[in-house]
Each structure stands twice: as structure tokens, then as C-alpha cells.
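Deviations from the work plan: none for this task. Representative record:
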Amino acid sequence: MEMEELIAETKVYNCVECGKCNANCPISWFESDYSPRLIAKRALEGFIDVREEKIWHCMSCQLCSDRCPSEVDYPKFIWGLRAEALKSGIGEEAYVSELEQLFLDGEMDKDIGIVREITAGKTAVEGQDGGIVTSLLTAGMEKGLFDSAIVVHREDGFKAKAIMTENVEDIIKASGSKYQFAPTVERMVEAIIEGGGKRIAIVALPCSIYGIRRIQKVFSDVELYIIGLFCFENFYYELLKPVVSEILDVDLGLADKIDVKKGKFVVYIEGEEKSCDVDELQGAVRASCVFCTDFTARLADVSVGSVGSPDGYSTVIIRSKKGEELFGLLKGLETTSVDRNEIAKLASLKRKKGVEELEKLEGV
Amino acid sequence: MSENKSMLVIGGGVAGIQASLDLAEQDFKVYLVEKNSSIGGRMAQLDKTFPTNDCSICILAPKMLECFGHENITVLSYAELKEVSGEKGDFIVKVRKKPRYVDEEKCTGCSACEDACLLKDRFPDEFDMGLGKRGAAYLPFAQAVPRVAVIDEERCIFITKGKCGKAPACEEACERDAIDFEQKEEEIELHVGAIIVATGLDAYEPYEIEEYGYGRIENVITGLQYERMINAGGPTGGHLVRLSSDGKPAKKLAFILCVGSRDLKKCPYCSSVCCMYSTKSGMLAREHEEDMESFVFYTDIRAFGRGFQEYIERGMEEYGINFIRAKPGKITENGNKSPVIWYEDTLTGELKRMEVDLVILATALVPSKGVEELAKALGVELDEYGFFKVKNPLYAPVDTTREGVFVCGFAQSPKDITDSVAQASGAAGRAGEVIS
């Protein structure tokens, strides 16, 4: 895509240089030479060289564009610049590999990333599948590995809200998938900058973990335990709610649980189970998700998901010594074998889709 | 031309009052319909006016009284327009007058009912933008015109539950026997030659802009709340205080401009008065206390009126107001319940945080609630934001899309008091032409 076309499509020309994007960018607070506002400005002025720009700093959290008063679609703009950079042979892989080498320790699997150990497990805790995420957090907290945890609660029905907490009740309340992006990374940045938390566990989506690792790379004075969630795509609640109401005739706000399994979006509500094809919800998918190539949260200390495990179990990929330390604390764990192929299949499908979308932007 | 020399003005704020007085002075008979229980509108809530820093109510109150007392003006307060038929020169208008449960003739505004009400100080006071409290029986504000109490039918337990002690406390307390629970809604039919709309503005409530914490962080308020707070007759007696439970004096203030306005997802237009009133607010703070610090976070300063640029400069030089070119990213609350502003100083590119005592959001100003129904009843068009459309902004700037119906003030587009009053006189002139 030509630069002018990209600027027009992502409405960069709307920018009034108010700086709201930059002040909301988790990365900008740690990397002083990164600024969504200034990248946009250089593009508008025609002085942009994609090989020089720090376009790979962006984690696509969308806080900039979600809060932009001028409707600039920054994530798509950055992805457009990345597509341009790809032509010069600069790609995402090198940046991810660099972070993998810095923070992880295990065998490389081309589809699912670095693995120390992989298993299917469940605990006595009730959770989305095997209750693993909740158990990891409570065990780590009780053991004193970290002082606070950043998790996602439900508010106003099923809307995701990122919170930081020091108590176990809040952690337990956070169990269950929301299939939405919540800025857990923003809570982490606030904690670090406000000087409150230095030993933190954080549950995050693959995209955020990329950003979290970038921050950790330049700001080492923080002890993090990062639990990643498998993620194929997630949704805007404001868009998802009406679509679900139309297709399934249920109020998502009143749901007990939602799940995405084998191509189906399932809502558990008042003892019933209602489902539709995930494809029917495409209109509600978060914009950046289409470009994402990371299904298994490659940069987490421990990744958790349901794909690859029997019902009632969670798939657990341990990727670092820290992840191993945390996983080792679990009590009453039951394990069974994992279907690695199933994970690899979905991971490569997601990568393929992401790359294709990016190529579309490139226009080649 | 019609023989009907009556006129209808909708909205009793400064624009509606001006239009009414202009018409009345030309011997037209004017009906002024106001939906609240007192005329005065938004200007009555303001502390001072820019760019002269005159006391707002001191200018407005005599006008309110003149209007109410004028032999050619009938003020229909607590009333709303329901229906319009007929045409230019002879409109037939139906007005619904809500029961206030207080006899307007008998009530002297002594406030005995207000003091006696069992629910005194229980509910957020609309005039004080929720910072003060009122009861179910109350006077809207000290300078209310008419100065007549009103009983809130949704809140009064005698009206909702049929019981209030042995006998309603307000009724017991009133020496003039003015409380009248038998009052019913009235429908009034008027014949008028022309209609002027002057329905003014509401402030956008910025709950959706979650990152600014309005409604969540106690020490984040709106510009109109600040006006009430710094007003000597307001809920804090004119003292700037933190609204968190510590209640300490507020010494460091941050004014954030364009909250919801110039925002393509909310109100894309400029609200027109915020740069000026926020500067004014900073000046007033310094006039109240020498050691006040004010910071204005702006995207652009739009000081376009006569003397406005000079006013901003005076704010900087004489009052020490600090202007920071930034739209803050977000506001968090720290352990002391102080708001912390996260922003980029766009002149240097630096990311910074600032802890303050109070954040004052200059929220978008929007057309008054209910304009859609009103426009429908009047048979006129609104623009995409809810402002009354004019026939032609250049040569018919007060003519709505229906003959004989005119508009002035904020209802037409964002503007300050001076421009609202000027436009009101213009609308009165055009309305007069219909008949003379």
C-alpha cells in the first residue's frame, strides 16, 4: 500500500497532535524514542523511513486508537508500516526471537515456540477448563513469589476489566475466559511507574506479552511471572453483545460462562448451552487480531489454553525456569497427555492467516 | 399580516429573557415558557462571566426580575411545549404546565417548607450540579424567579406513598397555606404570531471517557461543577475543596480542555467557550487564594472574540496560569485520593505525570435535553448534533426551517453569552417582522 493510501485509510490526517495516544502507550513510557504521535507526524510530513522507525515496539494494545479523539487507526497504520518494512526484509520474527532468547529457556518448537515441558492438567479449582491459571496465581501468591497479581474481572455483565490485586479472593473472582482484550499491561505500567509493585504476576494475551517483554527488556527492576492465554482472536464487548443477542437471542451480560471450542462460540446461561459458529461473529473481532501470528503466547513463562487437552483439562506449556517454579507449586494436580499436533495445527493456521492479512496490506 | 400580537419564547435563559424583553418593549405580548421551576438558565449557575469577570447573577438577576415583572410578559415556569399547529402569524400552541404543588400566588419563597421537609438535604441538587443537596420541597436557588418553592413529585413521600408523618411537614410549616397537593397538570392553549426557540445547553457527562475517571475518581469534576464550587452562594460557600473524604482545600488545579468536544467519537464540534472559561476559572482561583496553582491542558487555544487573546495572556502573566499543550492520556487516583494526570508535553515530547488536588474537565456542551421532541412538535429540523438548523447561516441566521419559528443562543450553535444575547435580539427583530 502506498503511504498516502495508508494515511488516508487509517485517518492519520485527522491527527491534531494532542499527544493522547503517546501518553496512553505503555511502551512510550519506557522507550523514550517511541511515539505513535511522532511516527504519524513524520508520515504526514513525508519524512518516514520504515527501516528506521521503531515500528516493532508496538504490541497492538490499541489504547492509543481506542482513546484517540480523532479516530486515527494507529494499529492498522503501524501494521501497514510493518508490511512496508517486510519488503526490506525486516520482520517480526527477529524481534520475537530476541525476546525468547532473553527470557525463555527450553527446546524450540517451530509451531508452538519454546517448550520446557508440556502437559494437560487440572486442579480442584473451578475455572474455564482445568482451573490452572487461578491455581497458579493463588499458589504463587501464597508462596510469596509475587505481592500482587494483575487479572481480569467481569463488570457490567461480561465486560472485561483489568485490575491489580493483592488478595486471593480477587484472583478467584477473575477465573473464566472473557474473550476480550483488557489492558492488564496498563495496570502493570501504572504499578511500575507509581512505584507500588515490583513483584507482579500478570495474566495476559499473546499480544500484550510481547509488549510486557519489551518493557521488561529495558526496565529490569521488576520481577514478573507472566501467564499467557492461548488466543485465536478476541472481541469488542460493545460489538459482541448485540451480535450475540441477535444470533443466539441471549443477553451476554447475564451469561455464566462463555467458551470458544472447535469453531463454536458457546454461551452458558441459566443452565442452557447456546452456540453459533465463531465465523458469524467476525464483525465483532478486535481490529489488530487479524494480523496477529501468535496463538500460544510464545513469550509467556507459562501458556495455558484448552486446545490439545481433553475436556476439563487445561493445556500447559512451560517455557521458562520461572514458569517451572510456578507450576511446581501446584497441589493436587492431575495430569494427562496432550495432543501437540492439535496445538501446532491451530498455531500454524493462525500464523498463516496473520501473514496473509499483512500481505494484503502490502499489496503484493 | 396577522392581528395576533402575541409571541412565544421557549427557554428562559439569558437568550430567552433578552428576546422576551426586546419584544415586550415593542409592545408585543410575550409568553415565556421555561421547563425548570425558575428562569435564569445556565448563566444563573455561573460565578463570573468572561472576559470582564463580572458577577454573572448580578447581571442576570435584574433582567430576570424585569422580565418576570414586565406587563407584557407572562412567564410560564415549570412548563413545556407540547404541540404546535397553525402557521406563521397564527400558531396555536399547547403548553403543559407541570404541577409544582405550591400555589405561585400565595408562596413568598420564605423557604419554611424547604427547612421543614423530612427529606431535606437528601437528593443531589440540580442547580449545584449534584455538589449540593436538596429536599423534596425546595427553592431552586436563592435568586430564583419566580421565587416560589416546588415539590419534587418523584421524591416527595406524601405524593408517592400518600403519607408523610401525621401531616406533610411542608404543609404544617407554610404560614401562607401555599402548599397544594391537589394541583394537577394544566394544559394551556396560546395563540401566537411567531415562536423563538432559546433552549440553551446541557453539559455532556463524560462517563464514557473512562480513562478520565469521571464518576470514579472523586476529585475529578466538570466545569459547571467548578462554577458552583467557586460561587460564594454555592454548596461550599465559594471554597475550593477536594471532594474526597479528607475534604482538604484544593490548592493545585488542572483544567482539561476538549473533553468530549472536538472528539470525532463524541461531539466533533468545538464547544466555543471552554478555553475562555477555564482561563477564567484559573484566574478566580488565584483571586480567592494567593497560593493557588492552575494548569490548563489544551490542544489549541481558541480565543477568537474581542479581547479574548488578551484575556488568555493576562491569565498567564498576571495570574500565573500554566498552559500545557497536551491532551492528557488518562487520569489515575493515587493513595492520597489525588488525581494523577498522565500526559505528553507535546511541545517537548516528554511524558510526564502530575498530581493535583482537583481536575476540572471542560466537557462538551450539547443541546438541551429534549430538543428532539421539541423540534418534532415545532416541525423544524435539527442538525446532526441536535442544534436547530437555520435556513441560511449568512442571510437568515435566526430563521429555522419553518416560517415564523426562530432560534437564538446555544440552541442554534455553541456560543458565549455576548453572542447569545446579540442573536436573541436578532431573533426578536425577525419575530417582530412577522406581525408588524
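Chain B has a mean pLDDT of 96.
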